[in-house]
Amino acid sequence: MTHLVAVGGSDAGISAALRARELDPATEVTVVVADRYPNFSICGIPYYFTGEVAPWQSLAHRTAADLEATGMRLRLDTRATRIDVAARTLAVRTADGVEEDVAYDELIVATGALPVRAGIAGLDALGPEQGVHVIHSMPDALALDRDLERRQPRSAVIVGAGYVGLEMAEAFTARGLRVTLLQRRPEVLSTLDRELGALVREELAAHGVQVVTDAAVRSVEHRPSGLRVVTDRASHDADLVLVVVGVRPNVELLERAGATLGAGGAVVVDASMRTGLPGVWAAGDGVVTHHRLLGETYLPLGTTAHKQGRIAGENAVGGTARFAGSVGTQVVKVFDLVAARTGLRDHEAVAAGLAPVTIASVADDHKRYYPGAHPIRFRVTGDPRDGRLLGAQLVGRRGTEVAKRVDVFATAIHAGLGVAQLSDLDLSYTPPLGSPWDAVQLAAQAWTGEAERMEGRTGIEPA
Amino acid sequence: MTHLVAVGGSDAGISAALRARELDPATEVTVVVADRYPNFSICGIPYYFTGEVAPWQSLAHRTAADLEATGMRLRLDTRATRIDVAARTLAVRTADGVEEDVAYDELIVATGALPVRAGIAGLDALGPEQGVHVIHSMPDALALDRDLERRQPRSAVIVGAGYVGLEMAEAFTARGLRVTLLQRRPEVLSTLDRELGALVREELAAHGVQVVTDAAVRSVEHRPSGLRVVTDRASHDADLVLVVVGVRPNVELLERAGATLGAGGAVVVDASMRTGLPGVWAAGDGVVTHHRLLGETYLPLGTTAHKQGRIAGENAVGGTARFAGSVGTQVVKVFDLVAARTGLRDHEAVAAGLAPVTIASVADDHKRYYPGAHPIRFRVTGDPRDGRLLGAQLVGRRGTEVAKRVDVFATAIHAGLGVAQLSDLDLSYTPPLGSPWDAVQLAAQAWTGEAERMEGRTGIEPA
Known about the structure:
The structure is a homodimer. The first copy, chain A, has helices at residues 11-23, 45-49, 64-69, 138-151, 163-174, 194-206, 252-256, 302-316, 346-351, 402-414, 439-455; strands at residues 3-7, 28-32, 73-75, 78-84, 89-94, 99-103, 106-109, 113-115, 132-133, 155-159, 178-182, 210-212, 217-223, 226-231, 235-238, 240-243, 247-249, 280-282, 289-291, 295-297, 330-334, 337-343, 357-364, 375-383, 388-397. By secondary structure, chain A is of the alpha/beta class. In chain A, helix 1 packs parallel to helix 8 (302-316). Chain A is globular. The model of chain A is unreliable at 458-463 (pLDDT under 50).
């Protein structure tokens, strides 16, 4: 009987194990999980802190019992320490410190990513005990939860205004903390163009979050009076500090086994999720991301981890699945606003050798005569040389179906459609939910109209 | 100077005129409108009767002044009576009975559709004066409005449980009328499979609408005590009767000019919207619909009329636009439920020579741990021989983004993707708005899993 071992209990590892069990119930599957929280929705943690999700156990996509009911074996609180590729054994250490070699036929490494500290002084010596937190795993979340209960902090500084920083700013605000959000860049949510990031900043400010941009954090200090976060321009005192400035791939296990590192320092895998080491597959936030427009890059996302894990699991039991590639689709809800993007922005497209043009436009989510219509702000990116759709950014109020509208763009990019072809799409219409030309198509028409004007042509031949 | 004349003031005619003016401001554009309500949103009429839209004037996509500001000329209350193709003149008759010949260089006919009476006896002699209504135009809507005001009816029978019938059942209910909805077919909303139509019927019943299916209406009688609708099985009395049993293309003008009729009795046009008559284009509910999966058919929809009109307007001023084809996407809100479809259902695919399989599934609109998650019910249709996605039907509560999720399917069908490729799509995810595998992808995976089981293969090669 084949023994498949997966390392990692988050999206990629569990997806791989589930898929292998689904396709080949004869395969024995063991999942080695460093903590005791397999298959938790890490993306859901902020909603535990808003109070919308309770108890925290409901953040599990599936319980350990659910997982074991599929026939997989879970080894919780167990760390993988070394791969012997030639012997096909994985060395592990249990919580009790017991070392053991686990034999495998196929190994899937899904060790994910680790939070970075971005060179901020003082962090090495500070942790939950001092009120300084990261939030990358369930143990992190539970440590933060205990700290909030124990010390009842009244103020928080969040370092980093990316997705998690924004969501946690909302969560802390919902809990009654005064929140200061420090952002190194000129605008929050720097995965979007500044014009749209500014809308998100307004939403934060409207809910009482103090947003400080262009703030490079130098250090975090633990003082008798509390915590102090020092930037290049000011210092900010708070009872609690959350550092969410990004992640790096957790590659130690595979690197020591001889795997190659690529984009972003992540482990190189092919579209089948092969590492190149015999019998060793990898997936998730620790591996490079094939991007349909960029080629090999590093873009760790839960959606991608699920896909890659499923492919690795399928192929480890003899399948021939291939990762079709990311287009970088992301969405975040910030209070009552939803911001989304897919594909490339101008500077990303330029770096990829393209000649992008980005056009801003506004369109209502549904017919304005019907109650509750709200504008969606778009930025559509395309290449006027061939008309190809390269990317789209959308910001609108919650309820304007921004998340699924970005999915229409994502599907169109996946399929290689041109911007003008969006107007050909047969999209649904009823006045309470759309327009005869959907907002997506109006945004595309704004792009094609402007691109035609820029090119000095009208798109029609002389009569 | 070129003179472009468009006949018809609804979606196709106005879209054509707008596009022509946009592309070539040197073209003189005249739009001949049979009534005095150009560019009204006919799809929005039910929401005037619910009371959500007021005044009725706000149903105009654009006012007459907006339209004239683009440089087009509107001839309201003017009926086109005859086309002289050789002379390039259009005979018109004004409200005053004045007959006139209008010279044109290019003519776009967008006369739309007319309501049918489905052989129901008595309708010829009954109209708004007797409380018997259709609702296909603004004059129809205003006549119904006056009747509701004047007679204050307390009960209504609606004949036909398609989109308009369902929306008007909601509208009359909102106004406090007792509503009986008569449907000839075994289930309401027969554009969806019965399993999903049944959910819509439950929603109607939950809001007090009496739904009678398998009811073939024979006649409508005007009696001293009120109106009586007689079916093959019973009779239903009411103060008001609304007949919404479908439409037929309004082709008289073009047919007499020598145009060819095709599917559904509609005027044949090519992808450029040419009728084949020199200088005569046509678009909208009066012409055949090119369907990407079915070829030539008749499927009158406002979204299609907008597209065809825009293409006719572009080409009439020298453009080379082509209609890329419908995939039959439709959506309706019925009280708190949204029902949508795109592509083909089983029987439609069989008629087109395909070998479809339809698989039902259910998936939450977003992660269940986050408040407000609701199930979406899917029926996905594909052809197991090549895995091609053929269609999808979705029903979910309002707020579950069903309308934009059907658009993801519509985009995928447009692009010719396979069902399995839906799992490759990089769709957006955040717990309040989706899942790592979006509901759309889970529905696709339900199809592929079942198709694999039906084929007795697992989709993987032996290791």
